[in-house]
Amino acid sequence: MILLDTNIVIYLHGIQLDEAVAEKLRNTTLDTCNVIVAEVLGYKSMDTIDEKFFVDLFDSMKNHIFDKAVTDKVIELRKATSIKLPDAIIAATALVNGLVLWTHNTEDFKQVKGLKIFDPLADKS
């Protein structure tokens, strides 16, 4: 199972992901959390067509809630690292739920021990 970071969700609407990556995503369960939903849908310059695309995409994904287990993991991560709160919530969600975090911002998460990270754009940068 895959937790898509905000940047990868946004790239799904563009041409940044090649067909091989997009095909892999079509054949797996995609997950999200409310921080990612808020980051994407909270973009103030988004038009209604793009907003509908993202709302429909999020409706098709499993949304992991910010529950006590995730909260406890966020606290642990924030005490052990200098990770920003939104990234800590995303990382904790992935860790608690056994998800691989797909992100192009690997630097934001490299200090999180045990977090499985994959950058689908690594060969394209």
Structure in words:
By secondary structure, the protein is α/β, with parallel strands linked by helices. It has one domain (2-124): 5'-nuclease (Rossmann fold, 3-Layer(aba) Sandwich), CATH 3.40.50.1010. It has helices spanning 6-12, 19-26, 34-41, 48-59, 68-80, 85-97; strands spanning 2-4, 30-33, 62-64, 100-102, 117-118. The chain has a 5-stranded parallel beta sheet. The longest helix is centred in the middle third of the chain and has 13 residues, at 68-80. The chain starts with a strand and ends in a 7-residue tail after the last strand.
Taking the sheet with the most strands, its summary is: 5 strands, parallel
What would you call the quaternary organization? Answer: single chain
Total separate domains = 1
Class computed from helices, strands and strand pairing:
alpha/beta
Which term fits the overall shape?
globular
Give the second-level CATH assignment, the architecture.
3-Layer(aba) Sandwich
CATH fold name, please? Rossmann fold
Distance between the termini: 25 Å
| Top CATH class | Alpha Beta
Roughly how much helix do the residues carry, as a percent range? 40-55%
The largest beta-sheet arranges its strands as: 3-2-1-4-5
Weakly predicted, low-confidence segments: none
Radius of gyration (Å) = 14 Å
Order of helices and strands: EHHEHHEHHEE
Strand content: 5-15%
By CATH, the superfamily comes out as 5'-nuclease
Question: What integer is the average pLDDT?
Answer: 91
What is the number of strand segments?
5
Put simply, the count of helices is: 6
